[in-house]
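Progress against Task 2.4 (sequence-to-structure conversion) is shown through the following example record, which the project officer requested during the mid-term review.
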Amino acid sequence: MPADRSKQEFSKLYSESFSLVYNYLYARTFDAGLAEDVAAEAFTLAWRSFHKFDASRAKFSTWVITIARNSLASHFRLVRDQTSVDDIPEGVFATNDEDQMATKDQVRTLLSVLTEEERELVYLRYWQEMSPAEIGKLVDMNPSTVRTRLHRAMERMRRIA
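Structure tokens generated for the chain above:
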């Protein structure tokens, strides 16, 4: 693929997927600066490996979120400083329907019963609207396992809601 075409294609894919990647990282860290830094690192790594990207295997956004997920894991291994639910800014969980607005305390209570893996699956499914197959590719899990774990996580949250 010619370099100019590659730059144009990557630029288009970057524009289409940046907010998805940033939102994924922000939801995992609740730190805008860290989310920006890790997103920048992920897209830099994606650019360097763009020649390896195979659209027949995964969507670009899934591929780059996988890179971002690995970059974030590397960051946490280095600093061992994960953000707590108490650091979530007010209004992060607001919905468009005022009657359905979840308070920070309600969300904290619901998420507290889940493991880190379950919180990630719930986020990817319901905030990022990814299918179980897409999530499975991202987290290296069978789609039926994703569905089962999501079902169990949602049931656990319903019991305490």
